[in-house]
Amino acid sequence: MRRLLLILRREYLAYLLTPGFFIALVTLPLVLGVTAILPSLLSRHTPAPRVAILDLTGIGAEGPGRYLEAKIREGRTRNLPQEQAAVLTPPPPGMSGVKTPQEAGERIQAFYREQDPDANPPIILVLAGGADAVEARLWTPRARLIDLSGSLEDDLSEWSRDRRMTALGLSEADIRQVFEAGIDVETYSPESRTGRVTLTDRLPQLAALGVSYLLVTLILAGSGMILTSVVEEKSSRVIEVLVTSAHPAELLLGKVLGVMCLFLTVLGVLAGVGILAAGQLPAGLIREAAGAIFDNGLLGWATLFLVFGFLLYGSIFAGLAAFCETPREAQSLATPLSLLMLVPLILVVSALQAPDSPVIRAAALFPPFTPFLMLLRIADGAPAWEVATGLALMAVTTAGAIWIGVQAYRTGALTQGPPRLVAILRNALGLRA
Amino acid sequence: MTGVPALELDELTRTFGDRAVVEALSFRVAPGAVFGFLGPNGAGKTTTLRMILGLVAPSSGRMSVLGASDGRRVRDRIGFLPEERGLHPRMTPLQAAAFLGGLKGVAPAVARRKARTMLEQLGLGYAANTQIRRLSKGMAQQAALVCTLIHDPELIILDEPFSGLDPTHQQGLEALIRERSSKGATIVFSTHVMSHAERLCDQVLLLAGGRKVFDGTVQEARSRAPGRLVLEGGLEVTDVRGLPGVIAVNAAGSAANDGDLRLEVELAPGAEAHETLSAAFRGGLAVRRFESRQPGLHEAFLLLTGAGPRLPEVAGA
């Protein structure tokens, strides 16, 4: 135990007392913050789409062209967020005298060819046909620009319905009543604190999802650090001195736990900052979201799964790394295991839709996935027997992984070449060659 | 050899697949002895050391290391220096000594104090707080040696400790080995440089192809090798061949005087050069110059490992 603690301390301090660690600690919340506001920032700085309308229907002031122009001018275009609201622009020159959509199309293509694509050329909506059958073609200079067709389609449909209801003799007030006659469906559940299901009720699930992603990221990053550390010791022959100074189990566990403590420190700092920040937040959804992370024992479970995850994956990574002389060799050996860790990332998305589906329940009991998926099951109110079974299976598997990792580490530390299962088992069982 | 040995190997064998790297190796090392483990590259020296340390399981045979069945059970009483430097590159010598000393049960403050003293003795005091990756190979090797000795081990195992050291550092290491030996530590070191073994060892073991070819003192090893006598003068090869103790006569370059011969006379192991020389004078051989060459451990090594080059033998004239 003395040696294990010494190795743990060395590994922990070797990373902690570096400028890189402090830089990472400060930049991590910044990166998370920037990631959260980046989409909004990006869309705010994206030039608004310019729309020109060429109405060939001949309906005149009551036609769809004028209706859409009014909507766009007043910023009432449906389904578009404020920052992406379209800007009305007159049709490009050379469109006068155009009679058919085909002719318009040819001239628009010629117009686009002359335009600089970076100059934000307008999107052009060509309306044709009669009042009862409007044909609409939307021309866009680049196929990958924001597609406004859905939004314009909704507005045109509204114009069409409005016109038909007027033709049927309905007054403007009647038409407004028709449009406002929608019925909202409210969801209720006995599991909801208020009875009525709101986003607040889904917050624990969403928080568990976020923490699951964080666990995968931390364990993947930590395992990579363990891998690199062992390879460095192997290539610099430090490992030969270490295995004569301590038991391989002490060396391996000290290393894994040292890196784990480092990440627990990071989590502790982030949690501390989070708790302080949550206390300052005004009541509302963000505060409730913070509460969903810091209440309900989620952090306690996350810490437990972080420990198991580190021991499980870290031991295997360390064992594999002991056979490698270079980081490249180690990475290629560890890639299948890294890919395995990505499977839960895919499953957690499904778990959000149906957290109690048989696939998710089974996957949460599969020990390599338990650290990442059981959190979601717990947030969904999984029965105690299920959680206990998952924990027991994970504990047994983790103990097995540590044993295999130690044997592989012991064998790999003093051999050259790729790992051979026979050699590992022979060494583990104390069999003589 | 009497008393309980510090190290005893009994018919120890290690095979990898069908190949025996070490075969039925037996020897004993007395407490406090300096034991040289000699042999050409690939002779099985490192594998034997690893078996002693408990890092590699023997395929068969038994051993006793400080009374235990292998080194793992007494790791706190052993100090091991591998052939490569074996220290974390980003640690300083003081940090490494505190860490490795800690693993062996030495308090960090004590380890640092002892390490500083030892580094100063080795002339490396100024590098005590320099990261090991910034030290030269020889300096890093010295730092590793300090870490090996930090817990005052009873059994010190050094794998090729002199490789990479300049003559000054080699001399320093020899002094350190003598000092530790005088304090009662048992020292086992492997090398293929005979001069160190010759100066330091109470006992040497020669290994070739995984098998023991010699185990004894340096003097005993030397006596296995033929002594040599260089004779120059108006000599007849047949007369020289007839002298007592002579087993071969070889040309040894040109003589100082025209018409004279310069011959290297190979003596039988154990034969005394002065007896051969007396017989030459008694027999009236015209010896104008003579030179006696005592066999060194190097000659013994070459002879015993079967790697010795032969000088061209002079045809009988």
Tell me the total number of β-strands of chain A: 4
* DSSP strand content of chain A: 5-15%
Alpha-carbon distance between the two ends of chain A:
31 Å
What class do helices, strands and sheet pairing of chain B give?
alpha/beta
Number of helices of chain A: 16
Which residue ranges of chain B are poorly predicted, with pLDDT under 50 across at least 5 consecutive positions? 309-317
Major beta sheet, strand line-up of chain A: 2-1-3-4
H-E order of chain B? EEEHEEHHHEHEHEEHEHEEHEH
Measured by DSSP, the beta-strand proportion of chain B falls in: 25-35%
Report Rg of chain A.
31 Å
How many E-type strands of chain B?
13
Number of helices of chain B: 10
Shape of chain A: elongated
H/E series of chain A, N to C? Answer: HHEHEHEEHHHHHHHHHHHH
Write a structural description.
The complex is a heterodimer of chains A (433) and B (317). Chain A is mainly alpha-helical and 433 residues long. In chain A, 66% of the residues lie in helices and 5% in strands. In chain A, strands 2-1-3-4 form a 4-stranded mixed beta sheet, with helices on both faces. In chain A, a hairpin with a 2-residue loop joins β3 (123-130) and β4. Chain A starts with a helix and ends in a 5-residue tail after the last helix. The mean pLDDT of chain A is 81. Chain B is 32% helix and 27% strand. Chain B has helices spanning 45-53, 93-103, 108-121, 137-149, 167-182, 194-200, 218-224, 237-241, 273-282, 297-304; strands spanning 7-16, 19-29, 34-38, 60-65, 78-81, 155-159, 186-191, 203-208, 211-216, 228-234, 246-251, 261-267, 286-293. The interface between A and B is medium-sized, with 25 and 35 residues.
